[in-house]
Structures are given as structure tokens and as C-alpha cells.
Amino acid sequence: MLAYDWIAFFVTFFGTMFLIGELLVRMKGVFALLGVGFITVYFYSYLEPDMFFLMGAMYVLGLTLLIVDGKFVNDGTLGTIGAVIMVLSVSLSAPSWGAGLYSASGVVLGGFSSLVFLKVFPKRQVWGKVALKDQLSSEMGYNSMNETYKSLIGREGTAVTDMRPTGTIQVDGEEYSATTNGKWLEKGDAVKVEHADGTRILVKKMGA
């Protein structure tokens, strides 16, 4: 058993920091070995063999969910569940509330601290690909919206709210946020789309 409860903080802190760090940067397994070493010491210090493997498996499951979320899903849901499982695995393994609190804090802070490695060591290519995928998806979404807005140019519609000078218009049954060139329009006024891009729709009152 660890001599003092506060030691649990440093053991789980370094264990988690190195394990997640191995996922983020290219360290040829060095961080993985260090992380596994720290986490093994933690569970071995507090648990009997049966519980050692059970709680160790919980911790690994949480870490796996972090990997799956970061590499494939990338929406944060599995990552959050994984982080909670990791915290629970070390907390439930502790012999006291104090040790549990220290160990849980170590996991959380260790996870955040691992981000520092990104500024020091070369990143793994997989995370660069994830970032590129997000960028491309965002650009595709913007371009799609831009094309939709441009198709409205010259179309006629109705102001469904007062425009002071921004409001909502309806064109062919669809509602859009729009603005005038500074003139105020009343709800129900007939409008025509003069200009549109991916960020705004400019309209004028029919007959003006």
C-alpha cells in the first residue's frame, strides 16, 4: 500500500499523463511503458489480484473509449464516458475517501497536462487527419450553405417579422434570417432577394 494518500495523486497523475501522451505524440512506446508502470503500481498497491485485473480492465476500457472517440467518432461522447470510467476505476480502488479523491484528481489533471506534450514532441499523424477531416467538413458545410443562399438571389418572398433592419423572411415556404440595406420593413411586406452569400441575405421591399 502507498505510504500516504497524497502519493496516489502523483502516481495516477503521471500514469495518465504518459498514457494519453503516448496517444498524442510519437514517443515510440516510451510514454506507454512509463504510464503502464505508474498505473500498475497504483492498482497493485491497493488491490488483491482479482480486483487488480478488474479495475485495471476498467481503466484500459476508459482509455480505449478515448482512443475510439478521438480517432473515429470525434464528438466527445465516448471520450467523456471513457474519462469517467478511468476516474471511477482509480477512485473505487482506493482504500479511503482521501486516497480516492487524490487519485481521481490525478487522472483528471494528468489527462489535461498531457496536452503539453503536443508543444514539445511531434504529433501523431492520426490527430492531424482528424483535424483535417473536421476542417473539410466545416468547409463543405459552409459551401453548401453558400450555394443555397446564392440560389435565392432574385427570388421573391415575404417578411414574416418586422425588419429593423434585420429580421426573418420566407421564400418558397422556407424561413431565412435576412437584412435590408438599412431600411425598416413591416411584417407581411413583399421582399426580393438582392444579394446572398454564406453569411447573410440582403433583401429589398418589392416596388421600392
Automatic annotation (TrEMBL):
Ranges of residues in domain NfeD-like C-terminal: 150-205
GO CC term (a single one): plasma membrane
Location(s) in or outside the cell: Membrane
Superkingdom field: Bacteria
One Pfam family here: NfeD
Thylakoid listed as a keyword: no
Signal peptide positions (record): none
Coiled-coil intervals, chain numbering: none
Keyword Manganese set for record: no
Membrane topology of the entry: Multi-pass membrane protein
Annotated SUPFAM superfamilies: NfeD domain-like
Transmembrane segments: 6-25, 30-46, 52-69, 76-94, 100-121
Keywords assigned: Membrane, Transmembrane, Transmembrane helix
Protein known as: NfeD-like C-terminal, partner-binding
The organism of origin for this protein: Salimicrobium halophilum
Highest classification ranks of the organism: Bacteria, Bacillati, Bacillota, Bacilli, Bacillales
